[in-house]
Amino acid sequence: MIVRKYYAFVSSTVPCVGICLLSWWVDRLLVEMGHRASGVKLCTHNSLQYVQMHCCMTVVAVLCQSVWSVSVRHKQFVREAILLGIEETPCAVHLYLLQIGLCVAWTVVVACLIDVSPWLCYDWLLESRGAIAAVALASVVAMVHLEQWLYNWTLRRVVMATTFEI
Question: Do 51 and 43 meet the contact criterion of CB atoms below 8 Å apart?
Fold first, then answer.
C-alpha cells in the first residue's frame, strides 16, 4: 500500500497537529501585520508572540493526534481480523506504540523544518535542527516498515493459531 500511503504522514498529523501548525502560521501572520502586544519579549528567530502557549499546544496536539491515529489503526486492525475470521482481537499494543511514535516523529520533523515553529525559539534546537529532523525522519522510515511487518506478523500468528484449533 505504497508504504502506508507515503510513510503515514497524513494519518500522523491530521487533524490535530495540522490545526496546531495552522495556529503557528496565523500567529506569525498577525505579528507581520503589526498585531503585537507592546512589551512582549519575542523570539528573535521567527517573531512568534505566544511561544510558550504554542509549545504547550503542540504537546496537547500530539497527544490528541496519537489517540486519534491509534483509534483509526485499531479499527483497521479489527476490520482485517474480522475479515480473516478471527473472533477475538489479538493484542496489538506494539502496533499502537509504533503509531504513537510515528505521531511524535512526524511532529518533530515538522517542528524542526518549518520556520514558524515555536520550538525554534530554543537555541539548542535551532542549532541542531537538521540533525534532529534527520534522526526523526530516519525513525519514521524504520517505524513504518517495522509497523507493517508487525501488523502482518500479528495477523498471521493469530490466523495460524485459530487454524490449528479447529
Answer: yes
Model confidence over 31-86: pLDDT tens digits? 778 776 545 566 766 667 788 899 999 999 999 999 999 999 999 999 998 898 88
User: Distance between CA atoms of 23 and 29, rounded to whole angstroms?
Assistant: 10
Residue 26: phi, psi to the nearest 5?
A: -65, -45
Residue 149, all three cell numbers: 511487518
CA distances from residue 24 to 58, 92, 112, 144 in whole angstroms, order as listed: 10, 35, 13, 27
How long, in residues, is the chain? 166
- Asked if residue 27 lies in contact with residue 48, where contact means CB atoms within 8 angstroms, the answer is yes
- Rounded Cα–Cα distance for residues 80 and 151 (Å): 10
Angstrom distance (rounded) from CA 151 to CA 153: 6
Instruction: Judge whether 163 and 21 are in contact, CB under 8 Å.
Output: no
Find the helix packing angle between 16-32 and 93-113, rounded to 10°. 10
C-alpha cell at 56: 504547550
Contact (Cβ atoms closer than 8 angstroms) between residue 20 and residue 57: yes
